[in-house]
């Protein structure tokens, strides 16, 4: 049995994408693979346990092979935990939970994928940094970094230093989200740059914009939006966002397939224009508008609401002004979640096509 710790230089660099893809890849190579996220931060309450969202996703995609979700996510950090821990340190409790989980997850398995949280030092404040946890469970690490050359290599080296200081072997790095126009240049440079530092580049993954598109349901959950109508269409994806604060004649030129329209709730002209654009596009069997968000706490007259209910498009509202809510949406970083089957398939394909699975297995076995 071998434990592979998936670390990263910072949050949202691609640990979950890498974990998904490697589980699928190793399974296709005849290996039995299990998953654990020892310390999580984004969680949901399930059967009396705080379960990290990534553990829920992995169980949904791959099944759990009779392994409990509590074992796949033994420690989830709630709000206020860090401050409480600083004054009441109890590392034994944290590691006892991790040990119990690892003993369950490691049953009859070739590789255990261990997904970390943030960079190597995250969790140090409560004595369970990624480096500390990887050392404790005897894992080898891969570091995932966002695309680039200089900064990318600098940050990989910084994180490797923390792992190696803890006695954790780093077997290589994966470079993620490399822009297509710069792919060849970046791939050539980072492979040589990492080699210069004695570190193997295990893969270079191109940027995939479709992995960044949220469903309307995900936007609603993240931003606590109120659903006015179109509940059955919340699975539509927002591929672009526009603020319809200009006149409808000018706004309509910015609407394309998958557009999420934000407009003040009292701009009836833009609301009706968005609905019209959506209805016309439906006749061509593709939805131009993925959703409409009415800002400012303004709710249209009930006759307009009745029209919206017949448009087969999600309509939501919020009390915040247009600028505030649009800024939050632009900053929202989308994670792959349960129900994102298309994204899961794409993530697995990206890893299979761009990461050297044989090299990883060879490194894990001591090669």
Textual characterization of the structure:
By secondary structure, the chain is α/β, with parallel strands linked by helices. It folds into two domains: 2-211 and 336-364, P-loop containing nucleotide triphosphate hydrolases (Rossmann fold), CATH 3.40.50.300; 214-331, 3-Layer(aba) Sandwich (Udp-n-acetylmuramoylalanyl-d-glutamate--2,6- Diaminopimelate Ligase, Chain: A, domain 1). 43% of the residues lie in helices and 20% in strands. It contains 15 helices and 15 strands. Strands 2-7-1-8-9-10 form a six-stranded parallel beta sheet, with helices on both faces. A five-stranded mixed beta sheet has the order 11-15-14-13-12, with helices on both faces. The relative contact order is 0.14.
List keywords for this structure.
Rossmann fold, 15 strands, 5-stranded mixed beta sheet, 2 domains, globular, 367 residues, 6-stranded parallel beta sheet, 15 helices, single chain, Udp-n-acetylmuramoylalanyl-d-glutamate--2,6- Diaminopimelate Ligase, Chain: A, domain 1, alpha/beta
Distance between the termini: 15 Å
If you average the pLDDT, what whole number results?
Answer: 92
Rg is 23 Å
Number of structurally distinct domains = 2
Q: How many alpha or pi helices? A: 15
Give the C-level CATH assignment of the largest domain: Alpha Beta
Oligomer: single chain
What's the helical proportion of residues? 40-55%
């Amino acid at each position: 049995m071998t434990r592979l710790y998936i670390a990263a230089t910072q949050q949202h660099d691609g640990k979950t994408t890498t974990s998904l893809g490697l589980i699928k890849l190793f399974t296709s190579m005849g290996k039995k693979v299990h998953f654990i996220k020892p310390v999580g931060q984004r969680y949901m309450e399930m059967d009396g346990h705080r379960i990290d969202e990534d553990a829920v996703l992995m169980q949904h995609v791959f099944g759990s092979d009779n392994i409990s979700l509590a074992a796949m996510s033994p420690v989830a950090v709630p709000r206020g935990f860090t401050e409480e821990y600083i004054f009441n340190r109890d590392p034994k409790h944290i590691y006892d939970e991790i040990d119990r989980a690892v003993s369950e997850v490691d049953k009859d398995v070739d590789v255990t994928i261990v997904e970390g949280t943030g960079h190597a030092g995250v969790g140090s404040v409560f004595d369970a940094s990624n480096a500390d946890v990887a050392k404790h469970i005897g894992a080898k690490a891969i570091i995932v970094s966002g695309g680039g050359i200089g900064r990318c290599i600098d940050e990989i080296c910084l994180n490797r230093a923390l792992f190696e200081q803890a006695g954790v072997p780093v077997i290589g790095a994966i470079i993620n989200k490399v822009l297509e126009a710069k792919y060849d240049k970046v791939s050539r440079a980072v492979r040589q740059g990492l080699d210069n530092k004695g570190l193997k580049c295990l893969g270079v993954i191109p940027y995939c914009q479709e992995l960044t598109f949220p469903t309307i349901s995900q936007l609603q959950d993240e931003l606590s939006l109120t659903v006015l109508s179109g509940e059955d269409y919340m699975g539509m994806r927002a591929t672009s966002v526009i603020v319809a604060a200009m006149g409808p004649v000018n706004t309509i030129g910015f609407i394309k397939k998958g557009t999420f329209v934000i407009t003040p709730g009292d701009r009836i002209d833009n609301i009706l224009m968005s609905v019209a654009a959506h209805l016309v596009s439906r006749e061509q069997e593709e939805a131009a508008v993925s959703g409409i968000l009415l800002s400012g706490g303004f709710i249209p007259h009930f006759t307009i609401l009745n029209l919206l209910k017949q448009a087969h498009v999600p309509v939501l509202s919020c009390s915040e002004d247009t600028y505030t809510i649009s800024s939050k949406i632009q900053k929202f970083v989308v994670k792959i979640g349960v129900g994102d089957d298309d994204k899961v398939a794409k993530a697995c394909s990206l890893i299979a096509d761009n990461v050297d699975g044989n090299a990883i297995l060879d490194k894990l076995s001591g090669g």
